Amino acid sequence: MSVAAQGVGAEKARFDPARALKEAGLAAFVAFMLFLPMMGFRLVGAEGRLGLEYRPQWVVIGVVTVFFGHLLVSFLRAMRGAPVRPAGRVGPVARYVNTHAKWFALAGIALAFALPFTPFANRYVVDVATTVLIYVMLGWGLNIVVGLAGLLDLGYVAFYAVGAYSYALFAQWFGLGFWEALPIAGVLAATFGILLGFPVLRLRGDYLAIVTLGFGEIIRIILLNWYPVTRGPDGLSGIPRPTFFGLVFTRRPAEGEVAFHQFFEISYSGLHRVIFLYYLILLLALLTNWFVLRIRRLPVGRAWEALREDEIASKALGINPTNTKLTAFALGAMFGGFAGSFFATRQGFISPESFTFIESATILAIVVLGGMGSQIGVVLAAAVIVILPELGREFEQFRMLLFGAAMVGIMVWRPRGLLASREPTIRLHARSAGERSP
Amino acid sequence: MLELRQVHTHYGRIEALKGITLDVRKGEIVTIIGANGAGKTTLLMTICGNPRASAGRILFEGEDITRLPTYEIVRRGISQAPEGRRIFPRMTVLENLQMGAVPNGERYFAEDVEKVFSLFPRLEERMHQRGGTLSGGEQQMLCIGRALMARPKMLLLDEPSLGLAPMLVQQIFRSIVEINRTQGLTILLVEQNAYQALRIAHRGYVLATGSVVMEGEGRELLASPEIRAAYLEGGH
Ligand SMILES: Nc1ncnc2c1ncn2[C@@H]1O[C@H](COP(=O)(O)OP(=O)(O)OP(=O)(O)O)[C@@H](O)[C@H]1O
Ligand SMILES: [Mg+2]
User: What pTM was estimated for this model as a whole?
Assistant: First the structure.
């Protein structure tokens, strides 16, 4: 195995200076065209009028950086040999993480539970961690559809929206609390999953992506225009907050309600609710993970993977592709719906603006960056995608540029995702040859 | 056991099967030989309902299966080791075998894995290896083993010797005979390797451009001058 691996990897691309110069020149030219309008000019308000400030030095710096950066990358690549790993082979880090997956997972969970009580935890940290966990949960949910069943879904945000609006509306109309509405939201989202699933049963790849993208937009546009129910762009506000076994998280609870701090006889702190929400999404996310890990080992989970690998072979082995795909869509959607309900109760306000295509793209990016189908990979990718822009806040206008660069970087260095690998669902202990019965 | 009556299959406007009539009796090895593009693969796929026959009837144990969906046909007891092997490349050998056991709910999994491993010991050595990293011959063994995991009544094999070294070809054919003898499994075998196939087959059919042009006992066909000229020239 290792000999064969080296045999393939050892075939190095020779460094060709002329070609590298040409390519770097081209990249620098593209950079010039982009940087000229983006960085070369700046609108300034001077004496009450708008004026343009010219900043040629910025363009020069940018273009020179790109030129030499490109040269350096081609040089490093030539030194390292073929950068793209063939299918089925993983790097040493990924292999290490995967062989010790259990320990990494346990350590991660322990850390997650301890987080609100660590010294550096403040409201901001817990808030960001909560956002990360929402995306982790969404990533795990979408992983069922994209990673396991291999169905490229660009409209996943639709189910997130269905979950959020279901909870908000059921709370508004029937006074249902978070816990009662949660299963309903899940069922509704799953129903929408099946609704999407039916028309796309025969589609694959690009076509499937386009239809699911359209589906996501349809849901958003319905939410935007069905004013009497969804209140359109105004959104729904006053969505009830979740309670902790009936205890509310307000400073002065209404008649007949008991507040968390009163019950436990501690002084009120706004942090209680933030921490409670954090634990809530942590549990929901862990539930999702547990479910996905379980179902992978059940016949339906294995059928998803088989269908992803080879649809014709799967059919010939007695798998019913219709049911298999529909369950993938339905279950993936259900977890999207749960996450949506959580989002609604956390924000207290939702509007269609929270459910745009960019959300679908972000969730898909998490699944792909994580390495399709890898559960731990999703956690890493979600953390990267949520925290990176936060760290970048100091860079203000260059924030998204840095973010984009990081994404490109990950895809260049780890084209199969951060932790691309797949854990077998069944193992037997090999017996020595002598033990086998004749 | 399996009866085809005037079966036609179309790919769009192209008629790939032009009225095939054929019988396979219980416990037999029946082989289908024919040139490239004769319709052999199409015939096996049509039996499995993918694509559906556009006319004619297919009966399995007396039941009309012509209109059943593929997975239902498989559940009736017809397993196929398809052309090009089509194993699941990212799944391990064991997982591939597990997928084969889907039709009978994996009740006999442990027992049947044993049987497959004793038929193809090479698979046991490699049971945790990913399917895609197996050699061509090993993939073929896995493909046949996977089809056997369903405990079929009838096994369809599409060119199991394709691309294998002579030694392995011998071994695969020996395994086919062994499965037929010891398990009493009925086998429908499509082959380019006409000599080997006819030698082990009870009966054979010769297919040319979508029609049966000749049929008879294996030995009879092997001796026939037309067959020798068309399919056995140049040694084997
Ligand atoms: N999906 C398809 N669409 C259109 N035509 C097809 C399709 N599959 C097969 N054909 C055509 O049907 C005919 C029979 O093909 P088939 O694959 O059954 O041949 P074969 O006997 O298995 O050949 P080989 O020995 O090369 O495997 C060929 O002319 C082929 O081009
Ligand atoms: Mg063929």
Answer: 0.80
